[in-house]
Amino acid sequence: MFLNNHIKKVYMPMTETAFYILLCLKKPNHGYGIIQKVEKITDGAIHLTPGTMYGSLSKMENDGVIRFVREEDKRKIYQITELGLNILEIELKRIERLYKNAREVMKNEI
Q: Are 47 and 39 in contact (CB under 8 A)?
């Protein structure tokens, strides 16, 4: 998939906020649900504030990496798009490469 310069500039490398939002939107969810899920999967190490969350969701929707699915109980439900999945995969490969390289260096220097 072609990634335009704007998408590359904004999402590569990805911020932790963007990473966790996209990861949490593999299944439809709303902003508060994402905040709760991120705290759970990071054991409370990362706390997304509502201002950060809703600003990020709006920007990500405008960039086409997530899409509005429906409204439930006055909450907007979003899901990752194909573009968002591609960006997430690229980021996961980058993180895996960083981890592999760091492990190799650490192993060889001990």
A: yes
